[in-house]
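RECORD TYPE: inverse folding
INPUT: structure tokens
STRUCTURE:
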């Protein structure tokens, strides 16, 4: 904002318009700003007549309204080129923060000019909104890197694109359903919850690898798909079920913690561990029946299938 902007009518009028626009955003309870204070003091300077509850048009009236105001009220700085606007919200939910941030950005795009600009500042809500934006941007990058690395390593394990798909698709399905579980539990995506998705995939991929490796081994011995699945269950199924159940029950006990975050993460991790096991046992063989070329696996009994 230009210097001495708080005694410039055009600047203060735009700031007052900004306050009015933001006050009508759902979730905004109240706003403290210099423009409102100036209008209230202008009424006081005119014997309390309500018709003067407006922005003074000349510099002298604005200066009169600002007279004897202390800097410690934190509504302007010593050069009058910055006017903080404090926005008090009903809650700090992601939807509320997003609406307010979007409203501020839209107002700046429409009414911002050389002499006055509207910038997002700090405060608890401002920091949380910035974190939400950073996490939202990082989520796609994390998922691409996570599933990309898992796909490459799974392919190198089995040397089979179809085998890699059989392992990855259940993981992706459980991860996607995990977002729905987070919504039902009222857990937002933030810095502390973002790694939980990666942890669930990192642990869950083991179940699929254990089972499919035994199935692939049985197929290359000449067994049909049904017998190969039975062989995988009898050789690795017990270990998969025991491991997943032990880990799920262990983290599920966090639900009784007095810390809400720990309780929520316990339930979410229990879901990720247990449902990944269910997907590996039931979804993976169903996909294998549809995707895997059994004849090619039989033919590769003396070598490696590509």
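DESIGNED SEQUENCE:
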């Amino acid at each position: 904002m230009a210097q001495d902007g708080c005694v410039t009518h055009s600047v203060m009028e735009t700031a007052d318009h900004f306050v009015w626009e933001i006050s009508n955003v759902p979730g905004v309870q109240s706003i403290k700003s210099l423009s409102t204070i100036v209008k209230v003091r202008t009424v006081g300077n005119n014997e309390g007549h309500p018709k003067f509850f407006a922005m003074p048009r000349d510099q002298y009236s604005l200066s009169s309204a600002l007279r004897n105001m202390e800097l410690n009220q934190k509504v302007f700085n010593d050069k009058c080129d910055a006017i903080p606007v404090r926005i008090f919200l009903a809650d700090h939910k992601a939807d509320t923060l997003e609406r307010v941030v979007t409203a501020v950005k839209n107002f700046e795009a429409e009414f911002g000019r050389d002499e006055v600009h509207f910038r997002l500042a700090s405060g608890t809500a401002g920091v949380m909104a910035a974190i939400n934006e950073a996490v939202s941007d990082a989520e796609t990058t994390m998922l691409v890197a996570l599933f990309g690395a898992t796909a490459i390593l799974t392919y190198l394990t089995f040397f089979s694109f179809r085998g890699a798909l059989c392992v990855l698709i259940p993981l992706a399905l459980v991860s996607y359903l995990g977002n729905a579980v987070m919504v039902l539990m009222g857990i937002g995506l933030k810095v502390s919850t973002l790694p939980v998705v990666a942890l669930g995939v990192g642990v869950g991929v083991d179940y699929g690898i254990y089972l499919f490796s035994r199935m692939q081994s049985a197929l290359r011995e000449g067994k049909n798909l049904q017998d190969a699945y039975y062989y995988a269950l009898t050789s690795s199924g017990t270990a998969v079920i025991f491991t997943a159940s032990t880990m799920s029950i262990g983290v599920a006990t966090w639900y009784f913690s007095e810390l809400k975050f720990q309780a929520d993460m316990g339930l979410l991790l229990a879901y990720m561990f247990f449902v990944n096991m269910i997907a590996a046992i039931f979804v993976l063989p169903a996909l294998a029946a549809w995707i895997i070329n059994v004849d090619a696996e039989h033919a590769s009994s003396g070598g490696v299938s590509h």
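NOTES: The mean pLDDT is 85.
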